[in-house]
Amino acid sequence: MGVRIQFLGSGDAFGSGGRLQTCMLVDTGADKFLIDCGASALIAMRKYQVNPNEISTIFISHLHGDHFCGIPFFILDAQMISKRTAPLAIVGPIGTKQRIVNAMEVLFPGSSQTEQKFSVSIRELDAGGSDDINGFHITSYPVAHPSGSPSTALRIEAAGKVIAYTGDTEWQESLVTAARGADILIAESYSFNKKVKFHLDYHTLMEHGNELEAKRLILTHMNDNMLANLHNISCEYAEDGKGIEI
To answer: Which of 2, 42, 96, 194 has CA atoms 20 to 30 A from the CA of 74?
Structure first.
């Protein structure tokens, strides 16, 4: 059995195309983790019948709301509805812990101080650093996408497979290193051919296609311009609920 990836959310920050915000579920067979956890992540889990208690780890690429702001809802659900008892690990860039605390206090005052019946550990990873957690090896790479803290691309090794993810960024040479030899590269393709500062577009990705030496490429985080041009592209693209195996 391979590693299964399900796109719980494949949209941008603005709900383009009615899509949910960025969140990917990875199932190794022995464990499950999330890559990014946008504000609509818990809605997607309910829609696609994902048990949040089976998720051991959440990896965050950067600290914009459409990529991490599902965490306060996830933690409150774990405490009040799903009755979680297993530990939860969150891994993100420098500044993750304080941003999560701030978000919890804005959304649900006092919630960051509530004692839970499960432990929550938050690890902060330098851009360019790596770590091992819950049997997964993660490496982060600096990218160009201002978010109030370092934004990163991610490379995650799990169950003998390598998943690379651009996060949100304009073109950076660090993406070449992140993608090299990966079983799959999940790449932002925010627009089709319009250059949007701090974001990737389809034409730019194709221009650098020979440099991105991943075995498979799938596009996500698409705006209306990109969605209107899906018939003009030559690679796979994500949709909410779509599952693939690597």
So the answer is: 2
Residue 226's pLDDT is what? 98
User: CATH code at 201?
Assistant: 3.60.15.10
The C-alpha atoms of residue 148 and residue 231 are separated, in whole angstroms, by: 36
Each residue's pLDDT tens digit, 135-152: 999 999 999 999 999 999
Beta strand ranges found along the chain (DSSP E): 4-9, 23-27, 32-37, 55-59, 88-93, 120-125, 130-133, 136-142, 152-158, 161-165, 184-188, 217-220, 236-237, 243-245
Place of tokens 């889990």: 45
Query: DSSP secondary-structure letter at 20?
Result: P
Instruction: Answer positive or negative: Cα dihedral of 138, 141, 143, 147.
Output: positive
222: helix, strand or coil? coil
Cα dihedral 87, 93, 94, 99 in deg (nearest 10) = -70
pTM summary value: 0.97
Domain that holds residue 43: 4-245
Residues contacting 96, CB < 8 A, separation 6+: 60, 63, 68, 90, 122, 124, 149
